[in-house]
Design brief:
Low-confidence stretches: none
Structural class: mainly alpha
Distance between the termini: 48 Å
Largest sheet: 2 strands, antiparallel
Number of helices: 4
Shape: globular
Helix content: 40-55%
Mean pLDDT: 82
Radius of gyration: 14 Å
Number of strands: 2
Strand content: 5-15%
């Protein structure tokens, strides 16, 4: 029962959890910019709940992707973010056509 409660709570706070994890990573790496739960919610609405790459419905299975990868000088500013399915994010890796 406790496990189900935890899953329900995570599901309700999925945007907040992703933003918090990214914030911690950014601090650790000394990256520029940051995003919040609201940023991810706005991206989800802007992308109409679809992957920016394959246009598949995201539901709860999505990852925050950096358009210009952090490893190639990208930032955590909202303009550099998109939501992708886990598969699309793996296929993109740290590629950047910019």
């Amino acid at each position: 029962m406790k496990h189900l409660k935890r899953i329900r709570l995570y599901s309700q706070n999925r945007f907040a959890k992703r933003a918090e994890n990214a914030r911690k990573r950014a601090l650790k790496l000394g990256l520029k910019g940051q995003f919040t739960k609201k940023t991810i919610e706005n991206l989800y609405v802007k992308q109409e709940g679809k992957c920016a790459c394959c246009l598949q419905r995201l539901f709860d299975k999505f990852e925050v992707d950096h358009i210009q990868p952090l490893s190639k000088g990208g930032s955590n500013f909202p303009e550099n973010l998109q939501l992708l399915t886990p598969l699309c994010n793996r296929q993109k890796g740290d590629k950047f056509d910019g």
